[in-house]
Structures are given as C-alpha cells and as structure tokens.
Amino acid sequence: MAHAIRFYEPGAPEVLRWESAEVGGPGPGEVRVRHSAVGLNFADTYFRTGLYPAALPAGLGVEGAGVIEAVGPGVTDFAAGDRVTYTGSPLGAYSTERVMPTASLIKLPEAIAFDTAAAMTMRGLTTAYLLRRIHPLKAGDTVLLHAAAGGVGLIFCQWAKLLGIRVIGTVSTEEKAEVARAHGCDEVVLYRREKVADRVRELTDGAGVPVVFDSVGADTYATSLDSLAPRGLLVCFGTSSGPVPPIEAVQLAVKGSLFVTRPALADYIANPEERARLSGELFDHVGSGRIRIEINQRYALDDAVQAHRDLEAGRTTGSSVFSL
Fold first, then answer.
1. What sequence ranges are listed for the domain Enoyl reductase (ER) (predicted)?
2. pLDDT digits (tens, 9 = 90+) for 98-110
3. Could you tell me the pTM of the whole model?
C-alpha cells in the first residue's frame, strides 16, 4: 500500500498527516514513479502555511527521485526501470509512489545516487540558473550570498569557486561559518554580530557588490540594497523570513539606480532544452566530484512534522532528505 503526507488546512507542522494513498495507473503522458528519496525544501513550508496557494486537501513536496514502474499511453521518452529525478509541480512528492507527468522528469545518471538527487535537484538547478542565467558574472567578480550554509548556499559556494567568483556569505553562527568556508565561501559575515552592509563595504574597498543573492526576504531586504554597488542587482529568490516589503522605485534611484528581480526556478526549467543544459551541467559537476552534496539531515517520511519543525527553527544545514 502506498502512503503519503497530506494536509487539509494551512497551519503549523502539526497539520501534516501520514495516510494510505491510492495511486492508480498512469494516464497519457504520465508515468508511475516509486520514490527512493524525497527532498525537503523550505518552499514546502510556504505551501503548508498557505503563503503559496494549494487546493486543499493537498499533498506536499515538489522534489523526489526514484524508478519508473509503469508508463502511460503515448510515452516514448521514458520506460519502466528508468532512474529519474524531478522538481516542480504538481505537489505530492511526500509519498512512497505517485503518478507524474513526463514533462516534469529528468533522467538521472547512474553516477548519482537517489538520495543525492533528492537533496540537490531543486537546490542545484536553482544554483545553476542563479549563476548561469541571471547576470553575466565573470571570474574576479564578488557577490553577496545570504544563508551561505543552507542547501543552496553550499552548492552555490562550490560552483562559484569553479567559476572564479568571490563569495561573501552571511550565516548566523560560527558553526555555520565553518561549514560555509569548507565549501568555498571566501568571506563569512556573522549577521547577528556584524552589520552586513558595513562589512561588505569593508571587504570591497567601499564599492559594494554587483549582485546580492537573497533567499531570506523580509529580514535582509534593506541590508541587501545597502550592500549593492551603483546599478547593482538584488536577486530575491526566497522568502524564508517573510515576503519582501513593497518596492519603492524612488528608493532604488536614491541608492544608486539599483535593479531588483524576483525569479522563480519554474521559469528557468520550463523549456526542455534549457532544463537539459542546466541539469547536464549540474550532474556533470556532481558526478565528477567537483561539487559535493551534503546531506546533513535524514528523516523518515512519516516524520515530516519534526522535519518541518527543524527546518523552520533553523536547525538544519546543507540539504535534508526523506529516505524511503
């Protein structure tokens, strides 16, 4: 019998329920996937709390890896037995098995384990578009990255090092600072002790950085703007502390003709060819060992409540997965 996590109302982690589930067979353009591992992402909490809309009752989770057990009518690009990974809609990755549209799937190389895939597909593809699509960064550039010891942060620091990009990263504790440094973060700022923007100016000889990558949102928005060089770009790609405030256009002018963007991964992997290029580059780096994926927390799928408590309390570093 298949099982899944579902929720019937938005709220705290306790709204999550572990239930038996009827999966059924795949329809046209679909396959049935048995999961070997499922990713745990901060974005999952947005759906659970209602920040991101979901038609209730709903499943949860947007990232998983496993093996195709059956294919539906008309499916020619995948076959039973294929190893696959995915990130994105529809919700429901917190499950032992599910039916998925083939448009969401990415074939997984043998060199990459299922738990590694579940820990990195969303984070890795996010890092890929941030570094390779958002801004024409070049070797020698310096950027500011918030949450440098998080799942995206650790991949970002390693990938940036390969590109010759200097990373100033923010973290909350000395322990997280050591983790970030060990993964290639060049300069670490402890945001609870130091004024981030002032420290960024010191580290850039007063210039500021051309790009800030901010997954925190409300708590860091003002600091991010103050850390930018004239005509710099703030990339708001997450809101772990809450949504950014309304943007005042005149403020951007006063602070140096700044730019702000709020990208979404879905828009950078919607095109199959672009998704293949980004995932291919990611898989090549990980498969060769140039980028290592740290799975620092593992949970049973029926322990999703505790996993969400840990995630929201900031008790996690690197990536987290549900192992099946």
1. 11-322
2. 999 999 999 999 9
3. 0.92
